[in-house]
Amino acid sequence: xxxxxxVVRRLAIFAVSLALASVLVFAVCAALPGDIAQVIxxxxxxxxxxxxxxxxxxxxxxxxxxxxxxxGGMLTGNFGESYLTRLPVAAQIAERMAVxxxxxxxxxxxxxxIAIPLGMxxxxxxxxxxxxxxxxxxxxxxxxxxFWAGIMLVVLFAVRLGWLPANxxxxxxxxxxxxxxxxxxxxxxxxxxxSSVLVRYIRSAILDVLSEDYFRTARAVGWTRMRALVRxxxxxxxxxxxxxxGLQLATLFVGAIVIEQVFTLPxxxxxxxxxxxxxxxxxxxxxxxxxxxxxxxxNAAVDLxxxxxDPRLRSDGGRRR
Amino acid sequence: xxxxxxxxxVCAVVALTVLAACTSPPSSxxxxxxxxxxxxxxxxxxxxxxDPSASDAASIPQVFLYNVYETLLKxxxxxxxxxxLAERWQISPDRRTYTFTLQPSAVFPDGRPVTATDAVWSxxxxxxxxxxxxxxxxxxxxxxxxxxxxxxxxxxxxxSNSWLFNMASTAGMVFDSKxxxxxxxxxxGSGPYALDRxxxxxxxxxxxxxxxxxxxxxxxxxxxxYFADPNAENSSMLSGGLDIISSVQAPQAINQFSDTSxxxxxxxxxxxEVVMALNNQSKALKDRRVRQAxxxxxxxxxxxxxxxxxxxxxxGSMVPPTDPWYEDLSNTYPYNPAKARQLLKAAGYAGGLKLxxxxxxxxxxxxxxxxxxxQLNDVGVDVSIEELEFPRWLDQVFTKxxxxxxxxxxxxxRDIVKYADPxxxxxxxxxxVTKLVAxxxxxxxxxxxxxxxxxxxxxxxxxxxxxxxLFPNLVVTTTKVTGVPKNAxxxxxxxxxxAKT
Lengths: 321, 501
What we know:
The complex is a heterodimer of chains A (321) and B (501). Chain A is built from 13 helices and no strands.
């Protein structure tokens, strides 16, 4: 019962946050200076033509009406039509989401593949050269902005060596080989920064575990350090790592926006930037809401995963110790 | 993290890496013959929609004019009218009725002949659409009728030279009137190429139209790839991903392509006048002496050398050298700061003058603004610079004329006529210019040239603006590409004539 209540409480927070976000996003877009009709009609528009177009687009209606119209549409899955291209917003977002999701997914996976063994190494060999070296390297990785890493990778692997394409995107179904080739450099640039963050968290989480009583007990009954770590330590360390993972997943979407720009990948970030620049506010609002939704889902999932990972939380109404 | 799911993730990443390792770079992907048949062009602005009647964005005709959509006639490289969909045309003695005879062999991709009805339908479509420029260019048409399948009769409300010229551009595009598709995503024209696919945010791919009635297209496939970031475009070129950079946006970067065994750099002119507009209605700038002082105070040659790597032509008025009424007026106000100070003093600004410069955030404008401000500062004009995003610039400067100085590249061909409109954001109000422009449009060709020359001279003399420089047409190609024209005289990136060895 208490688990059920915890879940309900979490979902309520989720819904309220989403509703508040929609008001905020709409208000910010409404406050942006610049008129979409003027952008569409360009530098030779007459006032009559502008007024007519505003009426056709519905941008001359009161704000409250436009907000309700927009939210109502979204609840039924209709994100409206782009002002500029007249194409459905939902379809455009879905198309771009496919690109960004690959980037974030592979970026996270690669970062974890690098960070888990290195983080464990840095913790277990804390006082030895190899551990210190890993810690130092992760500091360097943290200091490097993802876009700079991306540019350097392009200069080396695309321009100098010619091994991989410098930028662009080929859809998976069109040519799987080219699809993968175009994703390698952007994914690696994202993963460099991500893994550096994760190494540090994993290291400190495991260091905590190493000093726990149960760990010492396991060692005392004759288990090796590795066995004790894998059987008891990882599960406990994972609790704090999952929190960080959730946070990092959200920042990865932001990082992806920058990386998409460097590698001209047609993802959500590029869509968003172009839409803001062109005052295609329906598209901006829809894209931002999807991003907000994703981040809120991740946060909720992190919170709910505590329940799964830590049995103690299930017994006292979802409150942590 | 459960170990089992971790294992699955490991497998996924290993698979991705292996997949990538098996792939060779795109340049060596296809055979020699295949590569010669394909062209990849790098460009900066992606069309917002593919429907030319819905927007006057120059990025639409860049890809589609002449390549996918054809016009009745075309401006050839000498600036003369040449036949395209119209085999020949006749102009009535009062120069108000045009009779076009269409090419008998011209067909749409499905084999249906291009008829006069298609041409009439297309004109009506433009007149209903949101492309304001095309709409106003067609406003002079009183009636357009299909006399028979191959004869089109157009009657104008008054004689107009610019009408025929405009019909060779976007406003003259002929759509397939029987097309059932949505023109915003699926263009339907009679040109040598047809749309293959549009990956939004990334590229537009054209394929050869095998049913084309004229000379077959050179390439089986042409890709226009879009780059928001010029650096990304350059690295793509350097790594073999592009055959052509259609317009270099940062001339400083041109040195990266100095290896003549690999790259060819083409430098010509465009129709883009980088105008430092002076608000002719703002208090100080109403005074011709102040406008002249500003023109004397700026060393345009040094400006081009400093901010645009020396690329660009000095013009001195609103006319590019490829227009028939071009004259070199770049020396009307040679650099002379002493004279500038003198003029300012005479106008009553000996104690200094404050001006607001509001520029859009585009590279040529922001870097020119800094240079201009420092030179004006030298003669006692204090310039405060404000950078505006383009939609805000449109609203504040363009619509409301709330500015003293601004810098914008005016890319439309023959846009000098905008000085005849006092409500345009320059707020330049000169009845003589308005009259001359109208007369030039209605007169014979010789009269048109003489009167437009006069207009250009008046504007220069009057210091209606400071024409900083003519935007250069900077194109980089690999040495394999031939036939790219030096000067950009139309809005089209015309693929006819371009080949690859």
